[in-house]
Amino acid sequence: MSSSPAETVSDIAQSTPPGTITLVTGGLALLVVLSGRPWRIARNLITLVHEAGHALAAVLVGRRLQGIKLHSDTSGVTVSRGKPEGPGMAFTALAGYPAAAVLGLVFAGLLSSDLITVVLIMTALMLLGVLVMVRNTYGVFTVVASSVVLGLVALVAPSWFQAIFVYLLTWFLLFGGVRPVVELQIKRRRGAARDSDADQLGRLTAMPAVLWVLVMAVLTVSCLFAGGLWLLEPTVA
Fold it and tell me: Comparing C-alpha atoms, which of 118, 123, 134 is closest to residue 55?
């Protein structure tokens, strides 16, 4: 009796070495990040994590979180109340751009221990936290759509597909965390981002905004390097 197409795909996926899955998903994630329209769509996820980073930092330093907005142009804003200056405000402003890469690094560490379910649970908790605080229609749509995809993968998809999804997500967070920092500096050079996180940090501290962009670049690239080493470990084992 011949196997069904679904069984064939499942057999191939289950027999594929982990290193191959890592390389393929990493390559696909990089293509998306370097692309045009696919990146503009996928960047909504990076923005979601970016604003979640601001929100988490605000809560950690004792600020009162008021809401999050996500926009169709992949921009976003997180509003919190507290002291308008000082280390707490600076930490809150800094937390956005590195957030995706830091989360990708955490996920890579979990995947190195085969904790795929933990990655799915952490993603669900993040989406739930943002959904509670989101304050505009497009933001709600973005979070709900992401939650539907995650729910289908976690509750319906077979384990081999979950593994592919989580590896792809992790690579995307690592690569996708770097590009917005590059885009930020390009916009700043054109004078189109005068109220960016880096410029806010420049006003809050004695360090110029361009150096804050450099700090963000070092953080995101370091996370990509460390996370990439974790993810690529099966290919050299």
Answer: 134
Domain boundaries, the chain: 40-236
Mean pLDDT of the chain: 92
Give Cα 16 distance to the centre of its chain: 27
**Cross-strand pairs, 80:** 65
Q: How far apart are CA 143 and CA 136, in angstroms?
A: 11
pTM for this structure? 0.92
Res 83 pLDDT > 90: yes
- 237: its two tokens: 């084992």
Closest by CA position to 94, among listed 71, 72, 61: 61
